[in-house]
Amino acid sequence: MRGATEVRAFVRDRSRGRRTWSDRYITLLGLGLLVSVVFPVIGRAVSAVPGEVDPARAGAGLALVAVLLAVLLTLARVVGPVGVSAADAAWLVLSPLPRRGVLAPTLLVLAAVCAVVGAVLGLALLSALGASDALTLRLFVSVVLGMSWTLAGMSAAVLAQATQTWDGRLVAVLAALLVAAAAATVMSTGPGQGVLAGVASAPPPVWTAAASASAAAAAGLAWRAWTAVARIPARAVLEASNRAGLAVGAFVVMDPGSLTWIAEDAHWRSRVLRSRAWPSRLRGAAAVAWLDWRRSARRPGRLALVAAATVLPVLAARAGGGAAGALTVLAVGALAVAATGTAGARRDAGDASLARLLGAGPRALLSARAVLPALLGGSWLTLALAGLDVVGHAGIAGHGFPLWPLGPLCAPALAAGALRMARRRPIEHTMPVMDTPLGPVPLGPLVWALAGADVTVLGCLPALVAFTTGVTGPLLAAQAVWGAVVLAAYCAAPGRG
Length: 497
Prior knowledge:
Largest sheet: 2 strands, antiparallel
Structural class: mainly alpha
Distance between the termini: 56 Å
Strand order of the largest sheet: 1-2
Strand content: under 5%
Number of strands: 2
Shape: globular
Number of domains: 2
Number of helices: 23
């Protein structure tokens, strides 16, 4: 039996012609264009690195780096991360070929991803800590640290895919990263600022030693993962390949909305749920919408992460984003949290037969489904704004009024936007292309991406004015009335989209 390399070479030679000089020229030209685009961005990012150490910025930056690394590891754990193409999954994974040779191309791709993501992570780390001296050396050390952390995390994810023991260890690592992010956040506002200042202003030899230790640990984990790949179960590889294939198919047909279905079905498919009696006091639309509440209650881990994410606007403001960064995180976070309670609305948009069988009218059902996203989005926004009140509004005008009352007042508009996101149609690829100063932009994906955000912005207009000019009593009253009007108008016209 030939090895995986010989089999792939045999198929490749007979499935396509040999590479010509024009193919190599196009490849080199593409790489040159990529370098010409990326290098100026890197130069601007390096030039923006502060020369002085700010403990508050350093703590917020370290917390964001820890959160970002935890998110990436969670994504790697959910996706696989080791998967192959559909052809390799059908023919090579289940063949007698050595498992390591079959999975070698995937591992090379993962190593390249770790290098790129690690470099970005290291640059973010340096931007948070600052560089009082030896900018070039500190930049190199930061990039090495970022690459080491991402390589170690990816190796742990591969080991977790191979054995259940390492899966538990990976979960412990994710918990440790979240604890470290919380500790960095607390230290940035208390007596721990001295420790953060000491870490950020440590001499270059200390940074070099830390980078060397991290690189050695990452290399050890990578070697262990490479050894474990030879014994990774075929079932784990096939499941990861199936998930990756579905995700790639969603991007190829430009239907990102299907990724939500993939994640939702993958979560519930392997779980056995206990049957509960239907609430006797609920009737009609309220009974149908009650299923969304049960679905949310059955995922306490996600609710805990949502609650912990309320500190992100404060971290974004302190890490150098200022008021603009805080407002961006507030808008995206509140709408995303509200959208987590709209699974039922998504299924109604695809098939409304269940609602009709239960005798729920479309307007009443849409109004009942709006309660949960309004509660989730409004609560998250209230807690996030309360955090900004604690740190002094992060540059947002207050005029003596606290920001947190805007949270519950914006809840109806958030619910309307989340429901519109859940009920939007697939991308219309027949729409024309619009010429812009940045180049042609297809209107189909643009309209799809803005669906939901447009209603939210419309319903939060008084709040946006308050964020820019200052919170006042009349603006609070206007937001209370206008947000409710927008949600009522949206629920009164239950047509899809």
